[in-house]
Amino acid sequence: MNFVVAKTSSVSHEFGHRLHIFVWDVLNGTEHIRALWLYMLIAGGHFFEHLVQIGQVYLLGWAPRDAGGVLGMWFPGLAANEVLHMSYNSFQLTGLILLWPGFRHTRRAKIWWQIAIVAQIWHFLEHVLLQVQYLTGTYLFESVRQTSLLELFFPRVELHFVYNLLAFTPTVIALVLYLRQVKNRAATPST
Q1: Could you tell me if 109 and 103 are in contact, meaning their C-beta atoms sit under 8 angstroms apart?
Q2: Cα–Cα distance measured from residue 177 to residue 104, given in angstroms and rounded to the nearest whole number
Q3: pTM value?
Q4: CA gyration radius, the chain
Q5: Buried b (16+ CB within 10 A) or exposed e, 63-73
């Protein structure tokens, strides 16, 4: 019995150690810029989907329920899939948090990244609320479908576009500031 507990503890400790090395030495060290670009590619793609939805509603005159973005044109049920939205928002928040330590030497970029984290936390909590309603079938405010808090005042398509804009814009600003500082540091001869 003690051997099993000791072995499990040892494996758990080893996993934690390797995870720590991966996050600190790889994601926020040698591969930080690549990890940032991969993250931005995925986050940018998601933001683009919301931008297309806005275009479908306001430029093409589609009903909001039919405006599913580019992917929604091929997979119509995708935009209504709360599990997909919850998964994506979990990924986005996790990515922001995991990549945050890599900004430790770039004060201004780090501040913008932290603003993105705060905006994404709110967005994430709104999706938790939607997910709970989806799973329980109990909807807020006597609505016939899942409803977020601010959806009482703003239509869903516009609201989620703004949520994504508020989370994505500071990440872009942080990335630009970060890359400038990295470039300037590389161009400055060390003494």
Answers
A1: yes
A2: 13
A3: 0.82
A4: 20
A5: eeeebbbeebe
